[in-house]
Structures are given as structure tokens and as C-alpha cells.
Design a protein that fits this description.
Length: 469
Amino acid sequence: MLRSIWLLFVYLSFVGLSTSAPFVATLGYVWVDTFRPQDVAYIVLNQIPDAMIMGIIAFGGYLAMDRRDPPRLSTETVLQICLVIWVNLTMIWAQAPDAAWVKWDWAVKTLAFSAFIPLVIRSRVQIEAFAQTYVFSLAANFVPFGLKTLISGGGYGTNLGLAQGNSGLAEGGLLSTVCLMAVPLAIFLSRHSLLIPRSKLMTLAYWGVAALAVVTAIGTYERSALVGLVVLGVYMWVRTKHKFAMGLVGVIVAVMLIYTTGAAWNARVSTIGDFEQENSAYTRILVWKWTLEFTATHPLGGGFMTNVINHVEVPGHNGAGPTIEFGRAFHSIYFEMLGEQGYPGLAMFLSITGIAFVRLRRLAKKARAYPELEWVAAMSDALQSGLAVFMTSGAFVGIAFQPMYWYFIAMSISLNAYMWRVEHLELKPETGWRGMIRQQAAPSGVGPGLGGWRQRPALPGLNGTPPRR
């Protein structure tokens, strides 16, 4: 009961604060969508449409109080809007209408809200608040899992976090992927947080969250987690300036992985190289083959949940005859998007990702030349690392419409829009709590507006501070 009362208090706090700072309702939506208090509360929150109410407040607050200084319309946002329209069109010829409408109900909301986020999340304070809210909402799910894994070990299909069952963050493939995506964000916050004063204790706390995220990913016994962990380590090593320190951390993690993992984990991971003898992996390949054959005759896709109509013949082993498997999941973001939304949907999905990567890399290179914008470069690197994990781990998990990918895309759009304002827009005076945050946040040598809601920092080089070469 106390937990339910506390969660209700947090929910109402988001609502109350949004009356003076409308963007807080957007943070509340992210908290509800990620932490999912309705699944662990016993009163009120489990009886009302929490996400819908918070979404309405966020959108209504923006229209009523926060429409000044909208960001430029980005190519990624245009493609997101096109994808929202397209997934609605594919419902016309959906192969499994009943199942399709169930997935449509949450997937289209994810796409639409992620396209809305950059309208609201614009300043440094807002961007960081979004990242903080997302990381801590996730941490509530994976910190208990990580601690239990350290104490008693994990296991495939084992629920050690808040969520139970085999859906959402209770599903190992999704949980391991979001955990690894959260690692670079947690490390970024440990170095560049403004909202939470930096100290040795807070730095240790952020690194502890990152470590438990890795432990949770390993504790799920998901093979895709190992692939994602390798990609995360390599990408972060390539992007960091402290390559020796990052390499040392990677070696320590590898040694601990070898030393602490049990025979069950090693046995499961070893099946990566022998997929023909492992039914789960081999069935995925057969489903991918079926998807290619299906889209050869249905290039526009079959709508959400097209996989429920598939059937594949799995060869038997050790003298056993073949078996027919029906309705197997796509187990890949690429084949999920291809089978459900066809080649147009897959093209839009890959284009959004590719454009985001290119712009984040350019952004990091541009911002790194200016000391006051080092946080922009660091966050750009963190978002790139998270997206790299998603695009590799997701190759073996059907999570194309899950929120974390779209939230990372939204943050990348907001970050690029922020940099554009820094370069092009003139400063305007701020008053009230926004000005107070700005004054507290701005270090010496930085022009006004670093922490403001609708303002930008003075670009180094324009105010007498030479750029770093």
C-alpha cells in the first residue's frame, strides 16, 4: 500500500509541476511509459489510463503555454510522421486484423509521441532532465535484477526485476538491450549533470547504475546481450578520448564475465556458433526466410503481427522427424519491420537511423571544438553508442516499435536543434525559475542562457573565447 501511495504521489507531482513548466508532463509520460507504475501499484494508478492522461496533459500544456521557439522541422521528424501514416495505412490490408489492432494501439502512440518530444525538449536542462528521467525509470527495473544476479545468479526466462511475465521489460531480449543502451547515458550523466550536483558519491552512483545494467544484461542469459555488449565496448572505446582507461575497463569486464558466469550461461552462449543444432536459433533463420518469401509477394507488408500467419518446418535431430512451427515471432527488428510494414516501412526505419547517426557524428565533431559545448559532444557519443547497441542486438530481437529506440532518436533531434539554436538564434532575457536555473548553471566565461528553457549559450568564439583546435 505504501508503494502505491508513493507512486501516486510521484504521478501527481509530475502533473502539478507541469502547470508551471509544461515540459515536465512529457517527462511524466516517459516515466509512466518506462517504469509502468500501473503494473506495480495496487490502488488508483492500476485503475486509470495513466499514460493517456499524462500524454494529453503534455500535449495540451504545449499548445496552451509552450509553443514559442519551436525547433526546425528535421528530416527524421518528417520520416517519423510518414511512418505513423504508413503504419495506419498497412492496417487496411493487415493479414491478422484482430492481433494487428492490439499492437497498433501501443506502437502508433510510441511513434507519435516520439515525434512530439523535440517540440517540448529544447534546452540543456530539458534534454538532461529527459535523459535523467529515462535512465532512473529504467534503473528501477534493472537495479533489483542486477543485485539479485550478483547474489544468486540470473537465468534465461527468469524474472528478477519489478516486471513479471514474458512481455515488456520482463522479456529478456528487450531488457538486456535497454540495459546496454542505458550504460553510455548513465556515464554521460556522471560527468555532465547540471540538475544533480556532481560529487564523488554521485559519480559512483551513476557508475554503479551502469555496472548493474551490464550485470542485468548478462544475467538474462540472452545471446543478443553478448553481441550488444561487444558492440557497446568497441563503439565507446572508439569514441572516447581515454582509450587506455576504457580498454582497461573492457578487460576487467571480460575477466569478470569469464570468472563469474556459470556453466549454464556458457552453454547457452556457445550455441551461437552451432545454430543448426539449436532449435531456437535455427527457427529464427527459417522465420526470416519465410518473411523474405512473404514480402516477395506482399512488398507493402502485411500489417502489425503478420508473424501470426507464418509456418515453418523445423528439421528433426537424432532420428526425430521434422515439426511444423506456427506463428513464430520475427526475432529481428529488420524482419519485423519488413514483414509488417514492407519495404517502404523498412526504408523509412533505416533512413531515420542512418540520418541520426550521421548528424550525431557531425554534431560531436562540431561541438568538441568548443569547451563549453563538451557536454553536447559527450551526449552525442552516448546516443550513438546506444543506437549502435540497438541496431546490433535488435538484429536478434523483435523490438522495432519499443520506446527506447524512438526516445534515443527524439533526444538526437533535440540535441541537434539545440546546437542549431546555439549557432543561429539571438539571446533573450529570461525571468523566474528559468533565469534562476540559468544563472546557477552557467560557469564563468559562458554567455547567458546555458540552462534556460528557451535560450541558448553564447557560442564560444563569438563571445571572445577561441574555439579549441
